[in-house]
Design a protein that fits this description.
This protein has helices at residues 2-21, 42-51, 86-90, 103-110, 127-143, 157-166, 179-185, 194-199, 203-209, 222-231, 241-251, and strands at 24-27, 55-62, 68-70, 75-76, 79-80, 116-121, 150-154, 171-173, 189-193, 213-217, 235-238. With 252 residues, the chain is of the alpha/beta class. Strands 1-2-6-7-8-9-10-11 form an eight-stranded parallel β-barrel, surrounded by eight helices. A hairpin with a 5-residue loop joins strand 2 and strand 3 (68-70). Helix 5 runs parallel beside helix 6 and helix 10 (222-231) packs across helix 11. The radius of gyration is 19 Å and the shape is globular. It starts with a helix and ends with a helix. The protein binds magnesium ion.
């Protein structure tokens, strides 16, 4: 009887260990591959929620009149966001016909859905405008009550330091620096391209030993997804959230 009890405990702990190690699924620019969706669209956000992702990644730019927009590229249909006014940007449409979403609209929808937010502040040509993008993003996240569910990411060291100083939220750096340097920057996690982890095989372990998390992008093939799972990363940012969810559930 005692042996049986110990066995049951072992199974439970093994199960918990697997669960604890399972990486969180981050839908890169939302779930944009299905018909009718588009990168960084409201549809991609809703679709990501519907398939059960843990978080949705999005990119933001601020325009010349202070509105923050959700878009990956510097421009939308040739309109450069940071040098255009709000009325000009607002006329643009995504590839699925949706109007380009403001960050306010995107986060308002997100606040009623389950996924967490991974908000990337893009590197603006004008650093003061970039500062404004950081401040406006933090203000909107806080106003909409999303701070407990938001992680900030950026390639810009300047924006990163500002996010760490002002947001009070987890911040992951996208530009690959060595683990000890990342810790000194105040990051909560690395958010690096998979090529860096392939090139530096000890980094995942080194980051964990420093108390930092590991987010890997943009991982899409079954082989790379399985490699990240086996390596024990904490977040996988992917264009294939349904495939990753399927692999994770079959591994449990
Ligand atoms: Mg991004």
């Amino acid at each position: 009887m005692k042996l049986r009890f110990i066995f049951v405990l072992m199974v439970v702990f093994a199960g918990l260990a697997v669960f604890a190690r399972a990486p969180r699924v981050v839908a890169h620019r939302g779930h944009w591959k299905p018909e009718g969706s588009a990168q960084n669209s409201i549809r991609a956000l809703v679709k990501a929620d519907s398939v059960g992702v843990d978080a949705v990644e999005l990119d933001v730019w601020i325009d010349s009149t202070g509105t923050v927009w959700v878009n990956h590229n510097r421009d939308i249909n040739g309109v450069v966001i940071e040098s255009a006014d709000s009325a000009t940007v607002a006329r643009e449409r995504l590839s699925n016909g949706e109007p380009i979403p403001t960050l306010r609209r995107f986060l308002t929808v997100a606040s009623s859905l389950r996924p967490d937010i991974v908000l990337e502040v893009k590197t603006h040509a004008d650093s003061l405008r970039e500062d404004a993008a950081v401040d406006a993003s933090i203000a909107l996240v806080n106003e909409l009550g999303l701070a407990p569910r938001t992680t900030y990411i950026t390639f810009s060291r300047r924006a990163f330091e500002r996010l760490v100083a002002r947001s009070g939220c987890p911040a992951q750096f996208l530009s690959a620096v060595e683990p000890a340097e990342l810790k000194a920057l105040g990051a909560t996690a690395a958010d690096y391209n998979i090529i860096h982890f392939r090139k530096h095989p000890t980094w995942i372990k080194d980051l964990h030993e420093l108390g930092l998390g590991v987010n890997v992008w943009t991982v899409n093939s079954p082989e790379d997804l399985r490699w990240c799972i086996d390596e024990g990363v904490d977040f996988i940012t992917t264009n294939e959230p349904e495939l990753l969810i399927e692999i994770l559930s079959s591994a449990r």
